[in-house]
Write a structure and sequence with these properties.
Elements (H helix, E strand, L loop, with lengths): L1 H9 L3 E5 L4 H8 L10 E5 L17
Antiparallel strand pairs: 1-2
């Protein structure tokens, strides 16, 4: 996966690996059989320079 992400950067794209999705829904959308497993989704695009990012909390405050 890191090699794919570096290749995308070389072509001018940004990417973001995602976990925590509903595998059954993804498999249905992609029409995958039950022998296939989706372990990660990779979002690909161009990051906005003024994008909105979620607030971060220091671990000491959680």
């Amino acid at each position: 996966m890191p090699e794919s992400m570096l290749g995308l950067v070389a072509e001018g794209f940004d990417s973001c690996p995602m976990e925590g999705f509903d595998e059954k829904k993804v498999k249905k959308i992609l029409n995958l059989n039950r022998n296939c497993h989706v372990v990660m989704i990779l979002g690909i695009g161009k990051a906005a320079k003024d994008g909105v990012y979620g607030e971060r909390y220091r671990i000491e405050k959680i």
